[in-house]
């Protein structure tokens, strides 16, 4: 009976040790994430507003130019922004590039 239990345990271990493939990120068809190129930016915003160009980096590349809308997360903001203030502009990334503005 002990031998049978050992054989079953060994068979279970052998079956559960299947090969797995490592996840390889595909920069062409993978998920796109966008982040700012710099970790901080100091600027003063006058009452009439300001236009600032900020560098961004994407995790994917495309053979076509891409545009993304940028908006503030009003639900998680502690700054008391009005909904009209949530739109911050757009991000444009040129074709065949990881970098944009």
Description:
It is a single chain. With 101 residues, the protein is an alpha+beta fold. It has a domain at 31-100. The chain is 15% helix and 21% strand. The protein has one helix at residues 2-16, and strands at 34-36, 56-58, 66-71, 87-93, 99-100. The longest helix is centred in the N-terminal third of the chain and has 15 residues, at 2-16.
Describe what is shown at a glance:
15% of the residues lie in helices and 21% in strands. It has one helix spanning 2-16; strands at residues 34-36, 56-58, 66-71, 87-93, 99-100.
Give the key terms.
single chain, 21% strand, alpha+beta, two-stranded antiparallel ribbon, three-stranded antiparallel β-sheet, 101 residues
Number of helices: 1
**Alpha-carbon distance between the termini?**
71 Å
In total, how many beta strands? 5
Roughly what fraction of the amino acids lie in strands? 15-25%
Oligomer: single chain
Question: What is the mean pLDDT?
Answer: 74
Order of strands across the main sheet: 1-2-5
The ordered string of helix (H) and strand (E) elements is HEEEEE
How large is the radius of gyration? Answer: 25 Å
What kind of sheet is the major sheet? 3 strands, antiparallel
Q: Approximately how much helix is present in the residues?
A: 10-25%
């Amino acid at each position: 009976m002990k031998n049978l239990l050992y054989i079953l345990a060994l068979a279970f271990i052998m079956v559960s040790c299947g090969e797995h493939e490592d996840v390889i990120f595909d920069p062409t068809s993978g998920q796109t994430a966008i982040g700012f190129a710099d970790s901080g930016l100091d600027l003063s915003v006058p009452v009439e507003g300001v236009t600032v160009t900020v560098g961004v980096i994407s995790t994917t590349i495309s053979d076509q130019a891409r545009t993304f809308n940028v908006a503030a997360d009003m639900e998680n903001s502690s700054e008391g922004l009005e909904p009209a203030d949530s739109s911050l502009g757009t991000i444009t990334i040129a074709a065949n590039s990881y970098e944009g503005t």
